Amino acid sequence: MTCVASRASGVAEVDEALSRHEQHVRRHGGLIRKRRGRVREEVRALMAEAARRALAQVDDAALDEVIDGGRAPDEVAIAALGRAVRSGRVD
Fold first, then answer.
1. Which of 25, 41, 44, 72 is most buried by its number of CB atoms within 10 A?
2. What is the mean pLDDT of residues 2-25?
3. In 3-state terms, what secondary structure has residue 4?
4. Please, where are the H alpha helices in 1-91?
5. Are the beta carbons of 85 and 57 closer than 8 angstroms?
6. pLDDT in the model for residue 90
7. Is 91 part of any domain?
């Protein structure tokens, strides 16, 4: 398919082909899969940022509690993640 926009040659054919392609992708769920993938990556990035912020918030006192047996590592991790999430948007 050849299109020369400056001469309006083939523009209608390209437009029609794009419309057919869009309909095909919609019928077969391609658009929703792509959107879902983009949203999944955005959520994954936000979760990673929350985890980075949580790790930065873990102080030596909390680590010492784990070393002394007063708290389990998962308790410290969950508490730090909770604070990071409650502090607001991660972006």
1. 25
2. 80
3. strand
4. 11-27, 30-57, 60-67, 73-86
5. no
6. 54
7. no
pLDDT in tens, 22-81: 888 878 877 888 899 999 999 999 889 888 888 888 999 999 999 999 999 999 999 998
Residues contacting residue 65 through CB under 8 Å, at least 6 positions apart: 71, 76
Q: Which domain holds residue 9?
A: 5-86
Q: Where do we find the tokens 């001469």?
A: 7
Residue 43: the pLDDT is 95
Helix (H, G, I), strand (E, B) or coil at 17: helix
Rounded distance, CA 36 to CA 89, Å?
Answer: 21
As for how many domains the chain has, the answer is: 1
Q: Tokens 């993938």 map to which residue?
A: 37
Q: Are 55 and 73 in contact (CB under 8 A)?
A: no
Separation of alpha carbons 6 and 17, rounded Å: 19
